[in-house]
């Protein structure tokens, strides 16, 4: 375990890397005694600093929702990070690639809460009932630390969250079978990835139920109006300046963005 001073130093280094676009040495190397609990506390402190500077908490993201990614990270459960309002983009946006260090893009669904939701004991049907609507989304992931990264590095680094893009058709959670939403992800006119939402832990609301129960351990939950990224159902695609992205969700619409 780390001391409070070490946790604050680590959070400051992540914030500095975010501001300078220069990755820092892995926190797991700087603080080899760092544990999962430390990593989430570092994330807390990073978020507190960003909010103190004017950002607002808009929701949460969930990562490591696939078994393959959990095994690669030597984890048995997902992880989570925060979504801040200054990292929200809409369909058609021109996004400066230079605001990130090494951006990559993932295809996801975003759930917008229609009521507060708290654990423990939250299940998929609780998430569906508490959700106001679901909307297609892209997550831009980015890392502020060097490679290779331990899971503690990723968690402390806000679960590698960079930004979110929303677009396409807004729908209520029971209007479609949210398990079987398919999508293709094209870069510069070439389909790079495709997937189906059932790949997210068998149901895209499963990760959100996990998140609510996890937040209950620290006396928190989801609030009405917050947005939650449920996890990716494609592999990440590298992004560079000049790239044009099109994510086609079929009947659920599409998202198009470009990177400058």
Automatic annotation (TrEMBL):
GO terms for cellular component: cytoplasm. InterPro entries: Fumarylacetoacetase-like_C, Fumarylacetoacetase_C_sf, HpcG, Hydratase-Decarb/MhpD_sf. One of its GO terms (molecular function) is 2-oxo-hept-3-ene-1,7-dioate hydratase activity. The keyword Iron-sulfur does not apply. Signal peptide: none annotated. Pfam families: FAA_hydrolase. Keywords: Lyase. Coiled coil: none annotated. Residues 85-250 form the Fumarylacetoacetase-like C-terminal domain. NCBIfam families: HpaH. This is 2-oxo-hepta-3-ene-1,7-dioate hydratase.
